[in-house]
Design goal:
This protein has about 200 residues and is α/β, with parallel strands linked by helices. The chain has a single domain, classed as Uracil-DNA glycosylase-like domain (Uracil-DNA Glycosylase, subunit E, 3-Layer(aba) Sandwich), CATH 3.40.470.10. The strands form two sheets. The chain has a five-stranded mixed β-sheet with strand order 2-1-5-7-6, with helices on both faces. A two-stranded antiparallel sheet has the order 3-4. Helix 1 packs antiparallel against helix 4. The chain is globular. The chain starts with a helix and ends with a helix. The model has no long low-confidence stretch (mean pLDDT about 95).
């Protein structure tokens, strides 16, 4: 039976990860958090600036919007496992700010080692992929969010998966009306995930 203790051991190993070069500029490894086993497992893209400093996933602006979405969808964040496809913050300097830079395929592949172990231990009923980078370790081939969104898919783990956008993409929308529409669609995806996980748990 999976346990938080197993996760703690793997997280401790990941804290010293040098499988790609991203560790050299990151403050620390940002491993996943949540119960094990868990009915829902959310896979984001990578830690942001605030996550890198705090050492916890989804605690910055995108995390706050995710929390809003979870509340609207009737999901208790305390019951789900939240992680990222890549565990180190990749960034480029812009003045005094550290700006997110998308991980490349090699970096995602190197970090999939940790995601594989998380999925094995957390043993979720359903995965939720947040954004394009999260698709790379979950699906083979050139999967896209737009092609997979709106229906339950099967990931390479054999686990039912719901694909949606990353919360940061909603934050970047300037038009208030469009931002509200995209948030509504995001919540709809989260409800699909919650409903499907509930149905799977009932069987």
């Amino acid at each position: 039976m999976a346990s938080p203790t197993q996760l703690s051991v793997v997280a401790g190993e990941a804290a010293h990860c040098t499988r790609c070069d991203l560790y050299e500029r990151a403050t620390q490894t940002v491993f996943g958090e949540g119960p094990a086993p868990a009915p829902l497992m959310f896979v984001g893209e990578q830690p942001g600036d605030q996550e890198d400093r705090a050492g916890h996933p989804f605690v910055g602006p995108a995390g706050r919007l995710l929390d809003e979405g979870l509340v609207a969808a009737g999901i208790d964040r305390g019951t789900v496992y939240v992680t990222n496809a890549v565990k180190h913050f990749k960034w480029t300097a812009r003045g005094k700010r550290r700006i997110h830079e998308r991980p490349n395929a090699a970096e995602v592949k190197a970090c999939t080692y940790w995601l594989d172990r998380e999925v094995e231990i957390v043993d979720p009923d359903l995965l939720v992929a947040l954004g394009a980078t999260a698709l790379r370790p979950l699906f083979t081939g050139k999967a896209t969010v737009s092609a997979l969104r709106g229906a339950v898919q099967e990931s390479r783990f054999g686990v039912p998966t719901v694909v949606t956008v990353h919360p940061s993409s909603i934050i970047r929308i300037q038009d208030p009306g469009e931002r509200e529409d995209q948030f509504t669609a995001f919540v709809r995806d989260l409800r699909l995930a919650a409903d499907t996980a509930g149905e799977l748990a009932a069987h």
